[in-house]
Amino acid sequence: MCDCGNNKNQDILVPHVGIITDITQETPDVKTFRVNAPGGGKLFEHMPGQCAMVCVPGVGEGMFSITSSPTNKEYMEFSIKRCGLLTEYLHGLSVGDEITVRGPYGNNFPVDTELKGKNLLFIAGGIGLAPLRSVINYCIDNRQDYGTIDILYGSRSADDLVKLKEIKEKWMNTEGVNVYLTIDREQEGWDGHVGFVPAYLKEIDFSTDKIGLICGPPIMIKFVLQGMKELGFTDDQVYTTLELRMKCGVGKCGRCNIGSKYVCKDGPVFRFDQIEEMPDEY
Amino acid sequence: MQELINRLKELIADGTVVRAIGWKKGDMPYNPEPAYFEKPEDFDNFVYDGFCGANLSKMMIEAAKLEGKTAVCLKPCDTYSFNQLIREHRVNRENAYIIGVGCRGKLDIEKARKAGIKGIKSISGVDIEGDGDVTFDTVYGQKKMAYTDLMLDRCHVCKGKDHVIFDEVIGESKDTGDADRFEEVIKIEKMTPEERFAFFKSELSKCIRCNACRNVCPACSCRKCVFDGVKFDSQQKANVDSFEEKMFHIIRAFHVAGRCTDCGECSRVCPEGIPLHLFNRKFIKDIDDFYGEFQAGKDPEAQSPLTDFTFDDLEPKDAVGRGE
Amino acid sequence: MYSISKENLNSLYSAIAGSYDLFMPIKAAGQTNYGFWTEGAEGDIDTLKTIKSGKDAFFPQVEQLYTVNREIVPADVAAGDDAEKAADTPVRTKLKVNPVKLVDNDFVIFGMRPCDVRAIEVMDNVFLTDPVDNYYKSRREHGIVVALACHEPEESCFCTIFDIDPADPSKAKADVATWVIDGKLYWKPITEKGEALTAKIASVFEDDADADSKITNEISYIEGIAKQLPNADLSLEGWGAGKTDEKFKSEVWDKVYKGCLGCGTCTFVCPTCQCYDIKDYTTKDGIQRYRCWDSCMYSDFTLMAGGQNRQTQLQRFRQRFMHKLVYYPTNNDGMFMCVGCGRCVEKCPQSLNIVKVIKAFAENK
């Protein structure tokens, strides 16, 4: 399925030029960028959870998860939160502007192996939905290969929920998919659940016949994992995706390692029992 | 040395200080390292000999923030740096107990290497007292060098045997100066602009931008250096040509001008042997010429000519055109 | 056996430089570093250690990866550009990426010591494993390594603990092995590449009938010296693949890092340190993307917008030595990322180095 080898002739550090074909303002500080090859079509194929180096030449380059699913054959998407020099600049771009993209990098969530036929529990916080959205859509588009899908997604406020339209129109209307939304504080016009993700998790009291996939701010991950353990989940039942400063994306520039593992190459997807074995530097 | 160790142990035992900063014995006879000492057994590895050239005053920036007083061993010239740090409010004097240690000039192992001495197994004659030659026992036989021939260049223009700030002094010091401090600067001033350019180009082209000079410099005490700013090209990790490193060194020299005590650490640590002190010394000479003699760090109360204004100050027009 | 008198070395350099770029130790402003030899340059094969290692030959301190041309064009709503935005920002940025031409001419690296030759193997494991780094690979394919025996090893040398033989460069993965004995350079091609180079410059050599016995004597002399060096019996016990947990958690780090200034001297003089940064340089003609050496000792090396990670010098110091003595061996069948060249031993401003780290751990057992 994966033909990530299709750019073998080009050097790993030389990027493709990509054109921005659509921009969606998701929340006040998150935009989703649709990227195509300048002549149309996708720049390259990827697997759910993999990342790519997105660059505005002269400004900077950074690793972002590819939030679109590989089942989307038309384009690639990146949901990017404005928080630094590069992301600030990206947010200023328009449809028709070109950027460079290289990848795909890293491993992926094991959708074709360990996750196959299993019940899945996705837990995301804020922009942490971006990498999981790729997996969720992949699983929904290959619905017959997976059991029940539970999605618990929370953010600071209703305005900070990313991809809300897709969640309501696609995810909530798919059989066997349950979506639980929550926001941190009461808000006018919000009649859904209010409270932090880890607390809601325990409230719902998920059964442990599932595999967990978590992404969000480190503090959320920490308490979600704790909550899941209280519910009876074990480390080898839960996956997450890590992020560190990266330059090369191929395990050579030497900065994103935790112990002997490189997040860009051996990750970004790790199971918690694998993280447990790493030195405490994350 | 034993007297020094005993006194430091005593200061810790009686609660005057919590820890001491000195030098720890190296694994080679010539590479002691700056270190902290707290427990009596830590002092088993304490050393103070001719190879303890490192200026420990900068370590006091962090040490003086720790709980309790820190004793620090400073050689006469190191005390100028310490004074300057006080002047700049970088160290808390109250949290420091300064032991002025005796000095008869510090040694530079590169001088031995340049003289062809290698395969060193042991070295004698580098104790803090004594005045004989230095003897090297090497796998290639025994070699001797005069102590002064082995001295760091900076010790040949010694600032004198007096500590300018201390709580107590242990050991005798000697003024090892036997050269004119500005001799090298005058030599460069006398060059034609083309010769001068060629000289600095050949020296600075060796720079590998390891930042050792900056990181060791007691005057470089900014919390965040402009050359570490990731948002600008000032980080200068790549250059158009090898001589572009001059920008780093010239900017650094300007930034420490008037504050540099001429401790010589920059030249001591440079892995490429670039005489970086010459930039600073040129500024010192100019300051002396234009504003009257001034030694940074001599008096923590004294106003530096470059951060002061008087009606008698030199006009820029009087400074330009010189050297023609 | 080929040989050439030391006085005639310039004619050897000249002969090599006639057909190849010649990268070798050159003395300038009192120090010896690798550089490209040109007529009049002072080749120096007597200095045992160049300040920087020869790794620049394959992994230069700075190299360009590609350039990007940026063209600003009017927004084209008909072609799908955002109509609303076209009013505010009526222009669009178009890019063209131009990769640089990879090295495609043969060059000679002359005078590399056996430790530095081993260091190339260490870097190969990084750059030539999948995905292969083509910039490095092209240099490796075109580089011809002429190794030189260490006539008089120094006290900072400890290559023998990594099973490197300073006396016999023909055991190193080099194309030609050389020795300097009694004012003569002896030249022994090892690989096909080495034979081809030798064939091109054979006219500068003379024959020496006693060469073999002289080399045998020289090898036993050097090996005898190497045994007497102070760190000849340094033990690496306790280090290597799979020791992450035990070593990472040790309290020894807290003691040994204290003097570290956080400069990059050790990483830049090291023949095996290969971490790099990728940055842009904007010029009026376009954007140049370059790669340059970076140092794990620097505070910005791993810094992210959120402040993580390795924020203290202790963590950075530990990273460097764990990488060399544990992480790298874990990923490379136990091979250490140190060749015992001793440059850090000589050059650290604070006299810290890998030997002291190894010894500190041995003492704390």
Describe the structure.
The complex is a heterotrimer of chains A (282), B (324) and C (365). With 282 residues, chain A is of the alpha/beta class. Chain A has helices at residues 85-91, 129-141, 164-169, 197-204, 218-230, 272-277, and strands spanning 16-27, 30-36, 51-56, 60-65, 76-81, 98-105, 119-125, 149-155, 177-183, 193-194, 210-215, 238-241, 257-258, 261-262, 269-271. In chain A, strand 7, helix 2 (129-141) and strand 8 form a beta-alpha-beta unit. In chain A, helix 4 (197-204) runs parallel beside helix 5. The longest helix of chain A has 13 residues, at 129-141. Chain A is globular. In chain B, the strands form two sheets. A five-stranded mixed sheet of chain B has the order 2-1-3-4-8. In chain B, strands 5-6-7 form a three-stranded antiparallel sheet, with no helix packed on it. With 324 residues, chain B is of the alpha/beta class. Chain B folds into two domains: 1-107 and 159-179, no CATH class; 181-313, no CATH class. The mean pLDDT of chain B is 92. Chain C has three domains: 2-60 and 105-228, no CATH class; 64-99, no CATH class; 244-363, no CATH class. In chain C, 32% of the residues lie in helices and 23% in strands. Chains B and C meet through strand 2 and helix 7 of B and helix 9, strand 12 and helix 12 of C.
Provide keyphrases for this structure.
heterotrimer; B: 324 residues; alpha/beta; 2 domains; 5-stranded mixed β-sheet; 3-stranded antiparallel β-sheet; 11 helices; 8 strands; C: 365 residues; alpha+beta; 3 domains; 9-stranded mixed β-sheet; 4-stranded antiparallel β-sheet; 23% strand
Whole-number tally of structural domains of chain C: 3
Q: Structural class, from helix and strand content of chain C?
A: alpha+beta
Subunit arrangement of the protein: heterotrimer
Strand content of chain C: 15-25%
Helices and strands of chain A, in order, run as EEEEEHEEHEHEEHEHEEEEH
Order of adjacent strands in the largest pleated sheet of chain A: 10-9-8-7-11-12-15
Q: Helix share of residues of chain C? A: 25-40%
CATH topology of the largest domain in chain A: Rossmann fold
Reading the helices and strands of chain C in chain order gives EHEEEEHEEHHEEEHEHHHHEEHHH
Largest interface: A-C, 43 and 60 residues
Share of β-strand residues of chain A: 25-35%
